[in-house]
Amino acid sequence: MQQSPRAGREGDVLAVVSQSGPTVSFFDAASDRHLDTLEVPAEPHELCFDPTQRLLWCTTTYHSGYYHDNSGRRTEVVAIDPDTRSVVEVVDLAPEHGPHGLALDTERHRLYVSVEGSADRPGGIVVIDTQTRRPTGRIDTEAPGPHWFAIDPTGRTGYATNKEAPFVSVVNLERGVLAAKVEVPGSEGLAVSVDGAHVFVASPYAGPFFSAAEEWTATGIRVIDARTASVVDTLPTGSVVLPLHMTSRGKLLAGEAHMAPDPNSGLGRQAPGRLKVFSADTRKELGEVEVGLLPLTITSSPDGRLAYVAGVVSSTVDIVDLETLECLARLDIAKLGAPGAHGLAYIPRPA
């Protein structure tokens, strides 16, 4: 008899950002029971859990709004104790601003944070020492808006997607320099294969809005060969994809956004999104399941059995069994306006 995907999760916690909350909510990973909600500075975006320091990191990106439509960019990342559900420290990265993507190297005690560019310098990656919680360096990406960032399993190479620049920035993390540019149309989310041999990139850039009538003929997931820093394949998708995530079992998860016609608006309206599942090894699609409106962030349980998909417009998190592709539950995330549910992190119970 197959074990339930919920089994053995007692004491584990799922953390969820509400961008307009502005809050981080905590849920019991076994029962989905709401445990607590923590208020944080305005416009939290992404989350990253550091098991070595047992800290939850959260980027705060704008004072209000979102990319291309905001009232100003913030400069802080927040360190949170996930067990007491309290803020440990607010780390100011100024003059850097617009922090968004997070990637963690536990071996070297480094947290990487993507930041937006300004008139006097391009966008880049800020390096934070996770033991002192202080910035120690910056790596230029030569693009104005690096958004998502991921590192390979060795911790030597990082990849930044750039919404409007026509390339993915490849950075040498040991030398702290830009190493290559991989040509793709503007890009969204990304994920690195378990063995580090390939990088999967959602492209093109979705833009601040997209019309239901617009034909996204160029949509897809570009496959980059890490050795040659070149695109070697494209996985076709039915619509624009924003987030990508790689599970510990080598499944590539993609959040596909959809629009429906709206007679009262030329832009159309958000329709339910799709979670598409691919094998990273064979690059074959394994299936899909309906999720909330405008899936923007995806994570998974450490064992790769469950996927968590945040829909920023519906402000929901769908919990999906990746063996059966069944939606097991939907969490409603409180919001004060739009947008809603965004960053996600799975937090195993203390050892």
Automatic annotation (TrEMBL):
InterPro entries reported for this sequence: Host-pathogen_enzymatic-act, N2O_reductase_N, WD40/YVTN_repeat-like_dom_sf
Highest taxon above the source species: Bacteria
Name the UniProt record assigns to this protein: Surface layer protein
Organism of origin: Streptomyces noursei
